[in-house]
Amino acid sequence: MSNFNIQSILRENIKNLTPYSSARHEFKGKASVFLDANENAYGSPLDKNFNRYPDPLQISVKEAISKIKGVPVANTFLGNGSDEAIDILIRAFCNPQHDNILILPPTYGMYEVAAAINDVEVKHVNLNSEYQLDLEAIAETIDEHTRIIFVCSPNNPTGNSIYREDIETLLANFNGLVVVDEAYINYSRQKSFIQELTEYGNLVVLQTLSKAWGLAGLRVGIAFASEEIIEVFNKIKPPYNINQSSQELALEGLQQVDMVNKWILETTLERDRLIEKLAELTFVEKIYPSDANFILVKTKDAISIYNHLADHEIIVRDRSKVSLCEGCLRITIGTPAENDLLLESLNNYK
User: Per the structure, how many domains does the chain have?
Assistant: First the structure.
């Protein structure tokens, strides 16, 4: 167990914060007449009633996730997408214009945006040519004001997993939070870092229902961390941050583990097929190894290929202006039929 002390980096105003106490926080028992929350007692102008506030701590959803992931409810936070968890982490642990976070480009863009919104400095250490951590450069760049290192693994937009032992090196040696963003972990050959939560007090693992679970439209992100860190999340979050519909539908979706596993298998098989077929195209220079539901493809003329596909109503992501991704397109793995259309269109590209 690391001897990390969360109080040493928590902002003073957050330590002293008295969180908002909603009607649903204050009364926990059974009742038949609710006259405490100024709700509309008559119901909703819909087929179903949504006139009551939802469970502020989403206990039923967390219990369903706990059964699947094996992480206790007390170590689980649900956010309005993982973006809410990223924002809360920066607000809780970084003093504006004083502290900084470290990101490892090319990486997910929201870490930098959330820091900018909170007026927190961002330090950058690029991944190396293999898209792995440059541990030496990271050690040289962090200073006494670095509070959080964000590691995306499998990484977006490159698709590869970051070496486990390198992340463990950060966890063991950095006296701040190491946030491992595992949005794509279901497609990966790597184990999740959730097993390490008891070992490292400074570890936060982000996951989501948006990718493999196919629930992007519900906006349900997950953070796993020590109980102490989860308490901080719950102190800062808006009282009812996950709406009733999202909670009910997420709960329904979480019962369909077999269907999700079938889709994951099919996606990884399609990923292998796409890699094989794309490698045959003369304008494809390199396909990077992927542990995600997308592949990064280096081409001779990314913008021209992007436009050609768009003309055929096929949209991929142009990443050619991102550092270390020059000439690259990021292609999500579609259904077999969608992938066939993609390949047909690329075969016709002149």
Answer: 2
Alpha-carbon distance of 238 to 91, in angstroms, equals 13
Whether the CB-CB separation of 329 and 317 falls below 8 Å is answered with yes
> Positive or negative CA dihedral for 70, 71, 77, 83?
negative
Between 14-23, 186-195, 215-224, the lowest mean confidence (pLDDT) is in: 14-23
Preceding amide of 336 cis, omega within 30: no
| 158/326 Cα distance (integer angstroms) | 12
Contact 194, 226 (CB under 8 A): no
State both tokens at 8: 């040493």
What is each CA distance from 259 to 207, 254, 263, in whole angstroms? 19, 10, 6
Q: Residue 348 is encoded by which pair of tokens? A: 């016709």
Q: d(Cα 128, Cα 151) in Å, to the nearest integer? A: 14
Query: Model-level pTM?
Result: 0.96
Within 8 A by CB and 6+ apart from 338, the residues are none
Q: Are 177 and 322 found together in one domain?
A: no
Domain stops at, among 253, 269, 300:
253
Q: How far apart are CA 148 and CA 151, in angstroms?
A: 10
One domain, residues 112 and 217: yes
Residue 1 included in any domain:
no
The DSSP secondary-structure symbol of 191 reads P
Helix (H, G, I), strand (E, B) or coil at 181: strand
Q: What is the pLDDT of residue 306?
A: 98
Counting DSSP H helices and E strands in the chain, the numbers are: 12, 11
Is residue 125 one of the residues assigned to a domain?
Answer: yes
Q: Pick the closest to residue 332 from 246, 222, 216, 254 (CA basis).
A: 216
Residue 1 has pLDDT above 50, yes or no: no
Domain check: are 219 and 278 in the same one?
A: no
Enclosing domain of residue 68: 6-253
Q: Tokens 């190491």 correspond to what residue?
A: 178
Same domain, yes or no: 268 and 228 = no
Average pLDDT, the chain: 96
Residue 123 burial by Cβ neighbours in a 10 Å radius (0-12, 13-18, 19+): middle
Q: Which of 253, 281, 310 is at the close of a domain? A: 253
